[in-house]
Amino acid sequence: MLQTARKLAHEFGLQAVPPGVGATLRLLAAAGQARAVVEIGTGTGVSGVWLLRGMREDGILTTIDVENEYQRIARRIFLEAGFPPSRTRIITGRAYDVLPRLADGAYDLVFVDAEATEYPTCVDAALRLLRSGGVLAMHGALARGRIGDPAARDVDTVTVREVVKAIRDSDEWVPALLPTGDGLLVAVRR
Ligand SMILES: C[S@@+](CC[C@H](N)C(=O)[O-])C[C@H]1O[C@@H](n2cnc3c(N)ncnc32)[C@H](O)[C@@H]1O
Q1: Of 59, 77, 109, 128, which is most buried, counting CB atoms within 10 Å of its CB?
Q2: CB 106: neighbour CB atoms within 10 A?
């Protein structure tokens, strides 16, 4: 089933999270006994299934994507993976528009896996949405290997570099950069 979701992602030209990132997401959700999780970047549902597998049995995954077509597939994948519709809240829209509608301090985990240019918005929102002790996980923190290359000045790399630095320098986060997938920046909200 994850294989099907991954194959469909590939057909759409999407980068679903690799198993190392998926297992880390499952671990984070389980360690925090997550009941309420926000995911930005549903895709075809690969990371969503990993998150749901780590969450409490009564937990709800709120997952956001601009593409309704991907989410239709994800909805089917979640069902096939054994998660009824009551376990997921699938919202179509841009992170920028949807995140302000979610409740403050109500979430245990926020996973960001979307457009790099929207990462600053997502991280600001995560600070507001997470309870104290909640965890932010942001995929793509290595910017496809360009993060440490000072000559790399494209907008995505510069944005990711600035976001990572801001989290590292902030008193509000306890961060670690995990070298799995395209870099998973995890940070606990103090
Ligand atoms: C890398 S894919 C997500 C893969 C998914 N997390 C998985 O592992 O199966 C990125 C997704 O983010 C969505 N996306 C890009 N920019 C977005 C935005 N500003 N708001 C919401 N979704 C966005 C894309 O439509 C795409 O489905």
Answers
A1: 109
A2: 15
Contact 6, 17 (CB under 8 A): no
**Residue 42 Cα to ligand 1 middle (Å):** 6
From CA 168, how far away is CA 147, in angstroms rounded?
14
- In Å, what is the CA distance from 110 to each residue of 3, 67, 113, 131, 154? 24, 19, 10, 10, 26
Identify whether 10 is a catalytic site residue: no
User: Is the CB of 43 inside a 6 Å radius of any atom of ligand 1?
Assistant: yes
The minimum-distance atom of ligand 1 relative to the CA of 117 is 19
d(CA 177, CA 138): 9
Q: Are 101 and 128 in contact (CB under 8 A)?
A: no
Per-residue model confidence as pLDDT tens digits over 46-93: 999 999 999 999 999 999 999 999 999 999 999 999 999 999 999 999
